[in-house]
Structures are given as C-alpha cells and as structure tokens.
C-alpha cells in the first residue's frame, strides 16, 4: 500500500502543489463563512 501511494505521488508531482493550494483556499473560505455571522 505504501508503494502504491509513493507511486501515485511521484506521478502527480506537477499538480500536488495545486491540490494543496486548493485545500488551503477551501479551508479559508469555510472558516470565513462560518465566522461571518459573528461579525455582522
């Protein structure tokens, strides 16, 4: 199983940073949306 994950990561290195950036941006949007009612 570790070999499969390692192989998949080595094939997708070009888009790995884009996926990480997407996860971070979605987290920021969710965090902001959940705290927006407290600011109004």
Round the Cα radius of gyration to an integer and report it: 16 Å
Percent strand: under 5%
What spatial form do the alpha-carbon principal axes imply? elongated
Q: In sequence order, what are the helices and strands, one letter per element?
A: HH
- Taking pLDDT < 50 over at least 5 consecutive residues as the criterion, the unreliable ranges are none
Fill in the keyword field for this structure.
40 residues; mainly alpha; 2 helices; 0% strand
Can you characterise this structure?
The protein is mainly α and 40 residues long. The protein contains 2 helices and no strands. It has helices at 2-11, 13-39. 0% of the residues are buried. The mean pLDDT is 89.
Can you describe this structure in just a few lines?
It is built from two helices and no strands. The protein has helices at residues 2-11, 13-39.
Would you spell out the secondary-structure blueprint of this structure?
Elements lengths: L1 H10 L1 H27 L1
């Amino acid at each position: 199983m570790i070999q499969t994950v390692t192989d998949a990561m080595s094939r997708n290195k070009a888009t790995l940073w884009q996926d990480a950036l997407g996860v971070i941006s979605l987290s920021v949007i969710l965090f902001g949306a959940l705290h927006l009612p407290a600011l109004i």
